[in-house]
Structure formats: C-alpha cells, structure tokens
Write a structure and sequence with these properties.
Layout: H1 24-33, E1 35-38, H2 44-59, E2 66-67, E3 77-81, H3 88-96, H4 99-107, E4 111-122, E5 130-133, E6 141-142, E7 146-152, E8 163-165, E9 208-209, E10 218-222, E11 227-229, E12 239-247, E13 252-253, E14 282-285
Antiparallel strand pairs: 1-10, 2-3, 3-4, 4-12, 4-14, 5-11, 6-13, 7-10, 7-12, 8-9, 8-11
C-alpha cells in the first residue's frame, strides 16, 4: 500500500471540474454559520467516478472499515476512510476536482491540505441515526482553518439530510467524541472537553439547518460545527456520502487523550507542529508567496 503522497502518480482524468467559485457572501456565511450548502458544484462525471471508486473500496475494504448496523437489523450503516492513496478514483477527485479550491477559499487560507477522505453509506431503511458530534476532537489537528465537504452521490431529501447547528463552531467548546455505534463518549472527566448537549430533546432551542440535495450539490462545514444525521427509514435509495476533510495554513498537530480517528500511525509530529507531512499534501494554493 502506498503511504507517501509524493510517490503517487495521478492519471489524467480528462474531466474539467467546475471552478471553485466562492463569493464574499458565501465566505461570510461559512464564517458565521460554520456550514453552507453549495449547489451544482460537481459535474456528474465526478459523481460517477466516485461511485466506481466507492464500489471498489467496499469490495476491498481498508483496515478502518466499520459496519454499525447489527446483523439481522434492516438496512445498513457502514463507512471507511484513508483509502485515497490506493484508490485511483478517490485520488483523481482529490487532485483534480474543485474540492480543494472550494475548501481553501471558504477557510480563507493560502493553501488547502487534504487531511483525509471518508465515505459513509446508509442503505434504505436503516434505523441507526448518526449521533450529534463535531469532528475536530476525533482528529489529531487543531486550528480555525478546517473544513469538510460532504458530497452526496445520490439525491437526498430534506428528511434524510445531515443536520447542523449553525454557529456552533464559534462557541469555543470542544465536545467529547462519541462512538457512532452506541453514542457513548470516548472518555469522561478530561479537562477541556464537555459532553455533547441533548440537542434532540431541545431542538427548538437550536438553529438546526439542513437541505434537500440534488446530484452535484454539497455541504461544506467547519470541523467544530455540531452535526448529526437521521435514519433512512422510509427512504427508497441509498445515502452515499463522500467526505473530504481539509486543513489550512493555521492547522497544527494535536495530541489527544484517546486514539485519534483516523489514527495516522505513520505521522510522527508533535503537539503544535505544522501539518507538514506527506500524508497531508497541499492540493491547492492561491499562488501567494
């Protein structure tokens, strides 16, 4: 398995991705709300390519693949990550699609490094809900320039779309990461972390946003924005999501009290180091010196 991005050859896809056009108002919305829906940003060819890559991925899962649905239960909720260096379709998307530029501009960073890719699938009729959480405490990274792009490969009705608490990234609070299988916290009693509040019990008190999405639409959100996802009970199609996690100029390596997810065993950085490592190549730059 290839581990260093510098050794990976990227074949010419021949697919001209749409320019990562981002307006001042979209940057302001992202900064204020920590989440934004972008319409029609990815050509159907990219979705087809990722669909092929995802099929290959789950026919040959990586070491971190997980199935959350118990045997015998309806539907299926499963995921995998950190496969882009062995998956041609994922690799082409990261290097050639508009994703890196979109993330870099929303973060207001001079560059965008890939942190990792993450594929999550819920089959029709899946009961499991994705618990409310935010991503940064799972990761070995801190910083304000931190953006995920969730790109669905299927139409997503509003009642099956991931939900976000607008503005939650600005509170300064870090919440304990939670196991997707049980909703339990990784640990308890750690200074600097709090339990995720019971959002579902007090939904009217939170500015919760979600969207109906068509192929080519995506959601970009800050790594500190609280979010969760409903079941797919009543849905007739899969909800396949291809997520890319991006970090900018101010990102620094962070040690956590738990094993990070992904763990990145090959990364030998120290707390506070810049994220300059072959596992996190710069895939977009604005050309500034």
């Amino acid at each position: 398995m290839t581990t260093l991005a510098e050794t990976v050859e990227i074949p010419d896809s021949g697919i001209p991705g749409k320019a990562g056009r981002i307006s001042r108002s979209q940057i302001d919305d992202f900064r204020r709300d920590g989440v934004i829906c972008l319409r029609g940003r990815f050509d159907i060819e990219w979705l087809d390519k990722l669909s092929l890559g995802m099929e290959k991925n789950f026919n040959d899962p990586g070491p971190y693949a997980t199935r959350y649905t118990r045997p015998g239960d309806p539907g299926g909720f499963y995921d995998d990550y950190c496969n882009w260096q062995r998956n041609t379709e994922y690799r082409e998307f990261l290097y050639r699609s508009p994703a890196a530029e979109i993330a870099g501009k929303l973060m207001q960073s001079n560059s965008a490094r890939i942190y990792h890719e993450h594929v999550l699938v819920k089959e029709p009729g899946t009961r499991e809900e994705t618990p409310w959480h935010h991503d940064m405490p799972y990761y070995g990274v801190d910083g304000d320039q931190a953006c995920s792009i969730w790109l669905p490969l299927d139409p997503v009705p509003a009642n099956a779309c991931p939900e976000f608490v607008a503005g939650s990234h600005r509170t300064g609070v870090l919440y304990y990461p939670r196991f997707f299988s049980s909703g339990e916290n990784y640990l308890q009693g750690i200074h600097g972390f709090e339990p995720v509040p019971d959002i579902d019990a007090h939904r009217a008190s939170y500015p919760i946003v979600s969207w109906a999405l068509e192929p080519g639409d995506c959601i970009a959100f800050h790594m500190r924005t609280l979010h969760g996802a409903p079941s797919t009970i009543g849905s007739t199609s899969k909800r396949r999501g291809f997520s890319t996690r991006w970090i900018g100029d101010d990102a620094r390596f962070a040690s956590r009290p738990w094993q990070t997810s992904p763990p990145f065993p090959e990364v030998n950085l120290f707390h506070g180091d810049e994220m300059a490592h072959p596992s996190f190549p710069v895939l977009w730059s604005d050309g500034a010196p």
